[in-house]
Amino acid sequence: MKILIFTEGTILMHKTAAGLTHDEIIKQVQNPAPDIYDFASYIPIGNSVLKLNHWADAGAEIIYVTSRKKPAEVTAIQQVLSTYRFPPGPLLFRQVKQTYKDIAEAVLPDVLVEDDCESIGGTAQMTITNVDAAIKRRIKSVVVREFGGIDSLPDNITNLCMTVDNDTG
Questions:
Q1: What is the 3-state secondary structure (H, E, C) of 107-118?
Q2: Tens place of pLDDT for every residue, the chain, 169 residues?
Q3: This model's pTM is above 0.90
Q4: How many domains does the chain have?
Q5: Distance CA 109, CA 148 (A)
Q6: From the centroid of its chain, how far is CA 97?
Q7: What is the CATH number of the domain that holds 161?
Q8: CA-CA distance, 150 to 4, in Å (whole number)?
Q9: Main-chain dihedrals φ then ψ at residue 144, nearest 5 degrees
């Protein structure tokens, strides 16, 4: 099973978001302080490291997607994944003129895990919204609340495929 998962907002967040409410974090992102751009200091959301390692141990291939495009920023996110011991896997990012939809369609994951993009416009900004309809039918979309983490998702990767599409609760 191939799982494509977004980093920022889904499994990682800026360090000053720790301990804040969802609404406070969204306000921080919409009115950014400098630490929001200190990607090297990002931290895991909840138990995302444990969850992803559990999926990887069960045989899932984990592929990460970052919103970062600049090489130094991509490297910073990769270092955070490594530092916190997320399971190994490629970290993809958008190339010139490439969209997240293009990445998802090229990877063709069994499962796409992304957040609801609340801070940047919601559903219209989500990857699955823009994937070609024929390809979309082949991808199990799992949506979590932005900065809410993936702790509520099943440990069992088979059950993950049966998760209700909009797990934004």
A1: HCCCEEEEECCH
A2: 999 999 999 999 999 999 999 999 988 988 887 789 999 999 999 999 999 999 999 999 999 999 999 999 999 999 999 999 999 999 999 999 999 999 999 999 999 999 998 887 778 888 998 899 999 999 999 999 999 999 999 998 888 877 655 443 3
A3: yes
A4: 1
A5: 22
A6: 21
A7: 3.40.50
A8: 13
A9: -115, 160
Do the Cβ atoms of 93 and 66 come closer than 8 Å? yes
- In which residue are the tokens 């919204």 written? 129
Quote the Cα angle for 1-151-131, to 5°. 50
Q: What burial class does residue 61 get, using C-beta atoms within 10 Å of its C-beta: 0-12 exposed, 13-18 middle, 19+ buried?
A: middle
| DSSP characters over 78-130 | HHHHHHTTPPP--EE---TT--HHHHHHHH--SEEEEE--GGGTGGGGSHHHH
Distances (CA, A) of 79 to 11, 82, 100, 163: 14, 5, 21, 30
Domain around 64: 2-167
